[in-house]
Amino acid sequence: MNNGNNFLLKSLFFSLLVLFSFTNSFEAQAQNQIGGHFGVVQPIVTFQDGDTNDHFDPHTIGFPMGITVRKNEKFAFDLEFVPLITSSPTNDAINLLIHPGLLWGIGDKLTFGARAAYELGGAGRYGFTPLLNKGFLVGELPVFAEFVLPVRMGSDAGLSVTTAIHFGVGF
Questions:
Q1: Rounded to whole angstroms, how far apart are CA atoms 135 and 125?
Q2: How far, in Å, CA of 23 to CA of 20, rounded?
Q3: 68, 42 Cβ separation under 8 angstroms
Q4: Which of 32, 72, 112, 160 lies at a C-alpha separation of 20 to 30 Å from 89?
Q5: Could you tell me the pTM of the whole model?
Q6: What percent of the chain has pLDDT over 70?
Q7: Are the CB atoms for 59 and 43 separated by under 8 Å?
Q8: pLDDT confidence band for 111 (50 / 70 / 90)
Q9: Cα–Cα distance measured from residue 48 to residue 90, given in angstroms and rounded to the nearest whole number
Q10: Tell me: the pLDDT tens digits for 29-61?
Q11: Are 167 and 39 in contact (CB under 8 A)?
Q12: Degrees (nearest 5) of the Cα angle 154, 68, 121?
């Protein structure tokens, strides 16, 4: 290696060493909090193509579980996975909903959220889900109730809008 390249490598190494030393001289501070939740979601009624389905015959229920990255008290990213089980006397089906979303605290333990929705298995539909969440404590246990309004499309089916209630526990 010639002297010019050797000098360049030493200069680069020294610069990186100084930069690394300078950036590590500050005390580390956590910027994000990691949490999660587990619950049960019960679809109540779906409106699609002029028809109404009450989700009780056949019965549909979901078990949402999520990982939340909270940037601050007002904003979070949440990645939720929801196994959905539909059961009838003649057929049972299990689908998985991948449900990433953004959550905004709007005060008084109320949260507004918007999620993207990707259903795997079955119909394979997609869409979005607006939500309104109310958190509260039962003793020291953080629990919540949530109203969700899933909007779905795709898979040669018409646009559908569902109302559902989600209850859960945070950790």
A1: 29
A2: 5
A3: no
A4: 160
A5: 0.78
A6: 82
A7: no
A8: very high
A9: 23
A10: 567 899 999 999 999 999 998 899 887 778 899
A11: yes
A12: 30
If DSSP states are collapsed to H, E and C, what string results for the chain? CCHHHHHHHHHHHHHHHHHHHHHCCCCCCCCCEEEEEEEEEEEEEEEECCEEECCECCEEEECCEEEEEEEECCEEEEEEEEEEEEECCCCEEEEEEEEEEEEEEEECCEEEEEEEEEEECCCCCEEEEEEEEEEEEECCEEEEEEEECCEEEECCEEEEEEEEEEEEEEC
| Cα gap 128→117, rounded to integer Å | 5
Structure tokens at 118: 């990707």
> Using CB atoms within 10 A of its CB, is residue 93 exposed (0-12), middle (13-18) or buried (19+)?
middle
Pairing mode of beta strands 75-87, 59-62:
antiparallel
Residue with tokens 């056949």: 58
- Say how far apart CA 42 and CA 40 lie, in whole Å: 7
Tokens of 18: 């100084």
